[in-house]
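INFO batch 0412 | record 1 of 1 | parsing
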Amino acid sequence: MKTNKLYFFLIITGLLFHVSCNQLSKEEQEFDGLMQKVIDVHDEVMPKMGTMSSLIKDLEPKIDTTEVGKSHAKAQKNLKDSYDFMMDWMNDFSTKFPHGEENTAEDIEKFTAKMKMLQEEEIEVNKLKDQINSSIDNAKKLLEKS
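INFO prediction complete | emitting tokens
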């Protein structure tokens, strides 16, 4: 009788461990998927850094005290702000999520905090993308009119 209880206990413990490991694995997969989404947005806008630099230079000679010149100055400032936003975001992101760091769900509190930070980074990187794209579009439209 004791052998049956022990056998039953071992089976239940094994099943609970198996279910627990699968749940953690699912959480880790969710984290990895979200991380990839954030990196994908970064990878989409990173090549636009050169475009922003070129547009900043192209706008420079068109800046003066006229209304048109002031609109060029504003467009240039928006590009510079977008460029700085990207540099600041990348620095902040690499501090929060150092390259090579494993994010496992073994320490659930730490993992939950990292997941929350990553969700905030997804929002931030999408704001970054929108700001970069709009500043580039605006600058190109102004330069076409000139």
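INFO post-check: The CA atoms of residues 68 and 119 lie 40 Å apart.
INFO record closed
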